[in-house]
Amino acid sequence: MSSGFISETEIANQRQRRQEEWEKVRTADQPVEAPEEEYDPRSLFDRLKEQKDKKEFEYEEAHKLKNMIKGLDDDEVEFLDLVDKSKFEEEKRKYLEESKELNEFRRRRECLEEENLEQRIKNEIKSSKPSLNSSR
């Protein structure tokens, strides 16, 4: 079992590894020696609590919209059904009215065509009768 203490040689090894990693990623304008890790004087409990609070906040932000959405109650559903039904009835009424008007239009057009055809036939008959009589 570990006692939780770190020896001086382990600290030196850690610094050496950090310095080697620093040399790999260092640019010309940065210092030659690797910067020391920042010391956090807070207790472990405080640091862990901060991390936990941060994760909880991120989770709540991600799920905030989900919590805002609620289902419809019976009155709202009833109202929406009523609106749908009235829209359907209005569309049905318009469709029936349009089809009635179209049928009336077609019937009138047929009547006019028949009258026109009858008129042409009468005109042809009138025009053809004199020519038949004169040729005899």
Automatic annotation (TrEMBL):
<dbReference type="Pfam" id="PF10187">
    <property type="entry name" value="FAM192A_Fyv6_N"/>
</dbReference>
<dbReference type="GO" id="GO:0005634">
    <property type="term" value="C:nucleus"/>
</dbReference>
<keyword id="KW-0175">Coiled coil</keyword>
<feature type="region of interest" description="Disordered">
    <location>
        <begin position="1"/>
        <end position="44"/>
    </location>
</feature>
<protein>
    <submittedName>
        <fullName>Protein FAM192A</fullName>
    </submittedName>
</protein>
<feature type="coiled-coil region">
    <location>
        <begin position="45"/>
        <end position="122"/>
    </location>
</feature>
<feature type="compositionally biased region" description="Polar residues">
    <location>
        <begin position="1"/>
        <end position="14"/>
    </location>
</feature>
<dbReference type="InterPro" id="IPR019331">
    <property type="entry name" value="FAM192A/Fyv6_N"/>
</dbReference>
<feature type="compositionally biased region" description="Basic and acidic residues">
    <location>
        <begin position="17"/>
        <end position="27"/>
    </location>
</feature>
<dbReference type="InterPro" id="IPR039845">
    <property type="entry name" value="FAM192A"/>
</dbReference>
<feature type="domain" description="FAM192A/Fyv6 N-terminal">
    <location>
        <begin position="5"/>
        <end position="106"/>
    </location>
</feature>
<keyword id="KW-0539">Nucleus</keyword>
